[in-house]
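Final report, Chapter 2: Outcomes

The project's central promise was a pipeline that accepts a single protein chain and returns its three-dimensional structure in a standardized token representation, suitable for archiving and comparison. That pipeline is now operational. To close this chapter, we reproduce one record exactly as it appears in the project archive, with the input sequence first and the structure output second.
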Amino acid sequence: MSDHPISTPRRRQIVTLVHARGYMSNEDLAQQLGVAVQTIRRDVNVLADQGHLARHHGGASPPSTVENIAYDERQILNPRAKDAIGRCAAALVPNRSSLFINIGTTTESFARALGEHRDLRIITNNLHVAATLSGRADFRTVIAGGTIRPQDGGIIGAGAIESLSAFRAEFGIIGISGIEEDGTLLDFDLDEIQCARTIIRHSRRVMLLADHTKFSRHPMGRVGDLSDIDDFITDRAPSADFQARMVAANVTLHIAKT
């Protein structure tokens, strides 16, 4: 990310919108923000020169779709969609279930949505998830051992993989950083990928939580593909081709109501 501070609230809104959508035209940005297209064009030029956006003819995209967005920025991207996805996924998990919850802001929304549940057994390598759930006397929350990543509270490394491998759960709740149209599931960090793969292997039912912007991001690391999951919870219907691949892989689609 750029070291240049974003100078005005409108420019901050532009960056947030573009990161949330993956790409926005200058006309769409002007309509959203109630200003002239020429104003947006000037803002985009400045933001691109500072490294906050990539400028395209007629619009803008995030500066890179192959580098992850900082955790504090991901927290404020698509909060309504993430909360809706979290609530939708939580409704699929019955009381007295066992579940893994991995690293990610959408899985943290899922953890917050478990407030009405009872008697859950949770294994997580996400420090924020553990903190959210730790006050519940009827929940048994296990934190994977390993190295804490300071920027996002993820617990990674060989110790985390070994800890996760010691359990088997009914549900594996995983987030992801990118999804290819062919159904490949992608992430940025090799340690995080290894933890996600471990959760997939040790879960009876795997639920993928991802908002629509993940289709516009293309990390280099492969976590798996659609055949590795059972449920896909998102905020917008994917393309017809992607839905056909889901049917072929026997994956159930759930569209969260935002």
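Archive annotation: The radius of gyration is 19 Å.
This record, like all others produced under the grant, will remain available to the consortium after the project formally closes.
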